Amino acid sequence: MFPLLWLYAESEDAIASYVLEVILAVVTFGYFVVFEITLGWTPAKKVLGLSVRGPGGMPNPVLRQSAFRNSFELLDILPIHLVLPLAAADAVSYSLFGVVYITIAATIHYSPTKEGLHDNLAGGTQVLKGGPSVRTSPPGSH
């Protein structure tokens, strides 16, 4: 389904492209938030042996914390495609994401606790290697 949405989103119809980008941004945002608050990891983090912890060592971030932590995923909601030609809007969108990802990477690299800007905005969440917070089933299902 998503490859078809991506192909349609690349069309010259700015409004259709924008609507699909909003849908994909919300789905992506929801994916990260739901996995982080319920399991403490996304499938990729699980494979890498990583987990997302809430502030102060809480096992998982709560909804508000995860939403703040992943809010940059919603940059595609900015209506750039409605005010700029499609190619220029794509360039602006990709540049925004580039700046955000570089900022997050740099703040993680230079932080003594390896927290990125998005973790600080979320109140101190952390991504940790291994640990007891990596679960294979949702809380309370045992």
Structural class: mainly alpha
Rg (CA only): 17 Å
Number of helices: 6
Distance between the termini: 34 Å
Proportion in β-strands: 5-15%
Which whole number gives the mean pLDDT?
82
Q: Give the strand order of the largest sheet, numbering strands 1, 2, ... along the chain.
A: 1-2
Biggest pleated-sheet summary: 2 strands, antiparallel
Helix percent reads: 40-55%
Low-confidence stretches: 131-139
Outline, from the CA principal axes?
elongated
Order of helices and strands: HHHEHHHE
The tally of beta strands, per DSSP, is 2
What do you see in this structure?
This protein has 142 residues and is mainly alpha-helical. The protein is 53% helix and 6% strand. It contains six helices and two strands; from the N terminus they run αααβαααβ. It has helices at 2-9, 14-38, 43-47, 63-69, 86-110, 117-121; strands at 50-53, 126-129. A two-stranded antiparallel ribbon has the order 1-2. Helix 1 (2-9) runs antiparallel to helix 2 (14-38).
